Amino acid sequence: MKIKERLGDVSIYGFVFIDEAINPKRCSQILNKKCGSDSTTEVECKLFGCCYLNGKCFYDNTAMAGFVQIRKNSNFQTFYNIIISINVKECTRHCLSSSQCRCFEYDFKRTVCTLSKEACNAQNDSETISSYERIGFSSLTCYNADCGHLDQFNKTDLYECKTDCEVQSNCEFIIYAGDNREKKCTHLPSSNCDFSDSKRRFAYMNSCVLGPVFKDVYQQNDNKLLQITDQQSENTCIDVKADEDFSLRIPWPSVSTISPNFKLNIFGENLHKCIDLKNSLPPVGVLAYIPLDYQNDPIFIGNFLSCQLLNGDDNTVCEYFCSCQMDYCQSVYIKAITNTNNNMKICHYTVVQL
Asked: Most buried among 21, 145, 219, 340, using CB within 10 Å?
């Protein structure tokens, strides 16, 4: 049984059951997720590690959310764990659970998972081994697009690039290129990008901003994002209006912890209703939900699962429990709905690790 509500292009389920995937074979199951753009060639598609079908390039189910896949083995200098007889999804979970994990190598034939604190050092093309460079961090929202591609890259390591950006006050954007040839990274003060198809031909390019994004705002110096992420001031609230969509996406809320489950607290004023999809969807209130689909982009349409309402006073605070079962959630969304301009405000949120 499942309860389903629709909010425009969003389908939100009360609960679902997710089957555990067995180890996939390359290109045997094509995801309905485009790799690159409509102009991506077959040669480029294979270079990106994707699958070419009927003139189009797609990801298959060896693609793991939160990672850039390189179809080569990694020549690690050191590794901190080797696990045998597990599938690639389980290997992914082990890496995401550790703040130290930056890359893992997976042998699909031998079902061996190798976890490393080093960046991937992909060496030789392989049909049975892939290296997975981690981009799934709670501080990064990554778009599978080229927004500000520079000829001069100053790093080869995404993690170092991210760390440098986080300590520089004028940095809010990083560009990472990783494919079967090489990898490189740089960071930028800002970027204006329409994320159109023309920016997506080269699927190995990832453009990442620091922090969460709204459906209509991703620039981190925008006042709207500064307000919602400022938990120190009570005066940084955002008005929720009937003619403006309030949809906030928070990336990878529980990674680098043992448990993938988490609680989300939403604080505001005149919230009207902490929405629980055990009941019908009211015309006003606040809702938290998580994605059911594989996301190679911070999308705001598709299929989602409602978080469980734990507590809330329908006025200033709503507390939710969110779970992607055994997996780490790629994101969590806060949706605020109103049908009148009735002084409803969202002030800030907190993610509580369990």
From this structure: 145
Sites in the chain below the pLDDT cut of 70: 1-24, 148-152, 179-181, 191-192, 230-235, 279-280
**Identical topology for domains 4-19+214-353 and 140-210:** no
C-beta of residue 196 within 8 angstroms of C-beta of residue 244: no
Q: How confident is the model at residue 2, as a pLDDT?
A: 42
| Rounded Cα–Cα distance for residues 127 and 272 (Å) | 55
Tokens of 115: 């976890």
- Domain-by-domain residue ranges, the chain? 4-19+214-353, 30-134, 140-210
Q: Give the CATH architecture of domain 4-19+214-353.
A: Sandwich (2.60)
- Map residue 95 onto helix, strand or coil: helix
Which CATH number is associated with domain 140-210? 3.50.4
Looking at residue 59, its amino acid is: Y
Hey, CA dihedral for 251, 256, 257, 258, is it positive or negative? positive
Instruction: Report the b/e string of 75-98 with b at 16+ CB within 10 A.
Output: ebeeeeeeeeebbbbbbbbebbbb
For position 136, what pLDDT does the model report?
95
Q: What is the CATH number of domain 30-134?
A: 3.50.4.10
Q: Please report which residue ranges of the chain form alpha helices under DSSP H.
A: 42-47, 88-96, 158-167, 223-229
For 273-312, letters b (16+ CB in 10 Å) and e give: bbbbbeeebeebbbbbbbbbeebbebbbeeebbbbbbeeb
**Distance (Å) of CA 141 to CA 59, 249, 281, 332, 346:** 19, 9, 29, 12, 21
pLDDT at 12: 67
Q: Which residues pair with 246 in a beta bridge?
A: 336
Residue 303 token pair: 């299929």
3-state class (DSSP) for residue 162: helix
